[in-house]
Amino acid sequence: MRYGIEALNVYAGVAQIPVPALFAGRGLEPDRLTNLMMYNRSVGLPFEDPVTNAVNAAKPIVDALDPADRAAIEVLVTSTESGLDLSKSVASYVHDYLGLSRNCRLLEVKQACYAATGALQLATGYLAAGASPGAKALVIATDVALVDARAGYAEPATGHGAAAVLLSDDPRVLAVDLGAFGCYSYETMDSARPSPYFDIADVDRSLFAYLDCLTNSFADYRSRVDGADFATTFDHLVMHTPFSGLVRAAHRKMMRETGLPAAQAEEDFARRVQPSLVYPAQVGNLCSGSVYLALASLLDHADLGDGARVGLYSYGSGCSSEFFSGVVDSASSAAVATQGIRERLALRRELSFAEYEALLPEALQTLAPQEHRTVDLEPYADFLGGDRPLLVHAGTKDYHRTYEWR
């Protein structure tokens, strides 16, 4: 039996701003754009929150299932840094608006940008154990950005949205190599969200922790998989992508440690890594959804032929990391193509810097605990009403959030 990802979809909002426009508006040094390797970043609007992002990512997957397969979803896990309550999980709202069976485990997990991978591995193990034959699990990584001018150079790199992965014994997208993984974790304060109003980050500490965890999680992987070699075992590489420039630096470091000349390392990067960076360069960091956005990018942009092994690296600040692997093929690309991620990204409305700045104050309130709130949807009517209905946050009454389909 094989287990892994049956379906994968990404929702990256309905608005974006060109990164050069954001640099210019903030007065950031344009020379640093090259290292960022980004073109656009998704922007959250005041009617979007972690619930709407999660549902809008997962709904096309759930709707494509027949009733029996939909009822087979026995586990729903939302991974998020953007929790709405200290006890009630985001998953409870998501479960309701996806119309899933009431005979379903609901969980919310948190470990910065790593959490979705931890949930994926635990859910895959549950399915492979055979405790409930034919069961499926749905893991949704969902977050919102809480960044403005205070974030400095992190602001242009921070994305918005969610990635949904359906796990089963029919892994049409990615068959996970069971038992082939490596973990590395320790406590560090490289980034955090100490309040529902802003993020903090120690950029240098985070960069070094990311690189350190890649080296050591792969070393743990290698200890479990005889003969594993970073340069030759994997046909493609997919990594957590806070920004593409960091992935380039991480790849360069690992290839240098294998002794590969710099010129060959660049060719290797273009062949094995670059296809996974097309979408991250248009969206920004999706937190724990980032590595699955990169996987979708690979599947939409690489020629996989009859089959390819992919090495995946997931990192979450604080910190925890994992290197694991799986197998994909041309059918994987076909399965992801049905979600139309490329087309949805192209449909996002472009914001000017002035429009972006004007909506920020209200958008940054999206996680704030308010007893009563009404979200004015009228100013954003042009963003809604497409061919695919979207769930929007309409307001809050007695701390209970309400949502509508638009």
TrEMBL record:
Gene3D superfamilies assigned: 3.40.47.10
Listed Pfam families: HMG_CoA_synt_C, HMG_CoA_synt_N
Entry-linked CDD domains: init_cond_enzymes
Keywords: Transferase
The UniProt record lists the keyword Iron: no
Keyword Transferase listed: yes
Domain of life of the source: Bacteria
Family, per entry: Belongs to the thiolase-like superfamily. HMG-CoA synthase family.
PANTHER family on file: 3-HYDROXY-3-METHYLGLUTARYL COENZYME A SYNTHASE, HYDROXYMETHYLGLUTARYL-COA SYNTHASE
This protein's name: Hydroxymethylglutaryl-CoA synthase
Organism from which the protein derives: Dactylosporangium matsuzakiense
